[in-house]
Write a sequence for this structure.
């Protein structure tokens, strides 16, 4: 018996758009391996005054966690984030990125770009809650996906509708 191809879905977007909740919900519905956001755990331990070395560490560990999940998965991996999102963080926080990010090629099969149509919730770790900052962050997220010509779709809505929109996109784009 041949093993089905493992597909990776990655959540993408600025802070406080529901990526972590969406990742958990999608993993549950799809029976997927879930890869939480390593950067959040890192910031809980070390704070949010990040340097490029911190962002690189986060991106590399996240990449390894996704690879490990792919090795375990039967069919689906849902990643709360990946190195592309960390590259956008570098752009947003530092105005530049390390060349490692340009070389990164271990991308997902589908990116779900979560819209900024949910209210910002300050949880003590989030930084960019102002309307202009959120719009700029969202634009940087979109530019990253477009520049790399990756398969992506915008997910909007609230509550169950947001999850249903994400599932519809997965079915339409990945055909599974």
């Amino acid at each position: 018996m041949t093993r089905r191809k493992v597909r990776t879905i990655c959540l993408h977007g600025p802070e406080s758009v529901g990526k972590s909740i969406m990742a958990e919900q999608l993993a549950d519905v799809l029976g997927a391996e879930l890869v939480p956001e390593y950067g959040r755990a890192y910031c809980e331990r070390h704070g949010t005054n990040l340097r490029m070395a911190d962002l690189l560490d986060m991106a590399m560990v996240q990449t390894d966690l996704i690879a490990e999940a792919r090795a375990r998965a039967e069919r689906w991996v849902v990643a709360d984030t990946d190195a592309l999102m960390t590259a956008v963080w570098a752009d947003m926080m530092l105005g530049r990125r390390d060349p490692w990010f340009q070389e990164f090629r271990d991308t997902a099969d589908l990116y779900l770009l979560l819209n900024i149509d949910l209210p910002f919730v300050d949880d003590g770790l989030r930084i960019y809650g102002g309307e202009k900052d959120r719009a700029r962050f969202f634009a940087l997220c979109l530019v990253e996906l477009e520049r790399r010509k990756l398969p992506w779709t915008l997910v909007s809505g609230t509550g169950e509708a947001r999850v249903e929109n994400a599932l519809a996109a997965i079915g339409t784009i990945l055909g599974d």
